[in-house]
Amino acid sequence: MSDMNANGMSETAPLEAGFGDYVALLKPRVMSLVVFTALVGLLVAPVSVHPFVAFTSVLFIALGAGASGALNMWWDADIDVVMRRTQSRPIPSGRVQPGEALGIGIALSGLSVMMLALAANWQAAALLAFTIFFYAVVYSMWLKRSTPQNIVIGGAAGAFPPMVGWVAATGSVSVEACLMFLLIFVWTPPHFWSLALFMNSDYEKAGVPMLTVTHGKRVTRNHILAYTVALVPVAIGAGFTAIGGPVYLAVSAVLNLGFLWGAWRIWRRDETQAEADGYATEKSVFKFSLLYLFLHFGAFLAEAALKPWGLGGW
């Protein structure tokens, strides 16, 4: 038999944690996006970086992302246990204890920042430290539970990695780094609000003031369309900088037309339609939004790869 504590978490004897549980604690799906965008930010920078420096820099940026994930799971354990989407995470399932997650998060935070300073430069390390702080404290501990703008402002945490990669290579911030940041920052709200439309009951149960909970799904649909429209000039504008070019612009034009069409389809629907087909449109747009971001950064990378052959860039 098991008892439940005040937070609704099981008080049975702790389960044995496996290696995979500690990996899951670091949010590997989020980490994979961080690694990819940070790598792109580093590789498209206008300087040559030694392969070993590039590898170690991206490795420590990834560790910093993992540290953020562990700290987020430690803080959110009480709401993760009541949300269907997160109940199987290592802490609410009882496989990893909260104290362990906190210790891992703090240790990896210090290690990643210190080692990035040694591998690249202190500017990149300082920006990584701020990113970890922003995600763990500003977003997780403050914004997430206090305002429906949580994902708007908090999206900055996920937008910093390509800038960290760029700074690791160059030691400074540029227009190109800022546009890569803005691309993710403006993309984040319509991406997550598409998810919130069909996962709204989870946020209601957990008491998280997502826009769908505080202002309703009609307002959320309006916001998805508005932010997607705002995203287009940011994405296209990046194509006219040193990291852009004709390949990027062609890819971006197609992707933005697709995202706009998806946002329009979401905006046109009412809840009767959405519930009738199990939020099929919202789910498809959410999946497309992941492809949207991945292919934009892939196009940045393609432009950089083509430049030595005189085919990429302007």
What this model shows, in words?
- This protein has 314 residues and is mainly α.
- It folds into two domains: 16-172, Orthogonal Bundle (Tetracycline Repressor, domain 2); 174-314.
- The protein is built from 16 helices and no strands.
- It has helices spanning 19-25, 28-43, 51-75, 77-80, 98-119, 122-142, 150-154, 156-159, 161-170, 175-198, 200-206, 211-214, 217-238, 246-268, 271-276, 280-306.
- The longest helix has 27 residues, at 280-306.
- It is flat, with a radius of gyration of 20 Å.
- The mean pLDDT is 93.
From the alpha carbons, calculate the radius of gyration and give it in angstroms. 20 Å
Stretches where pLDDT is under 50 for at least 5 consecutive residues are none
Order of helices and strands: HHHHHHHHHHHHHHHH
CATH class of the largest domain: Mainly Alpha
Q: Helical proportion?
A: over 70%
Shape: flat
Number of helices: 16
Number of strands: 0
**Biggest sheet descriptor:** none
Write the CATH architecture name of the largest domain: Orthogonal Bundle
Mean pLDDT: 93
Strand content: under 5%
* Chain oligomer state: single chain
Please give the domain count. Answer: 2
- The computed structural class is mainly alpha
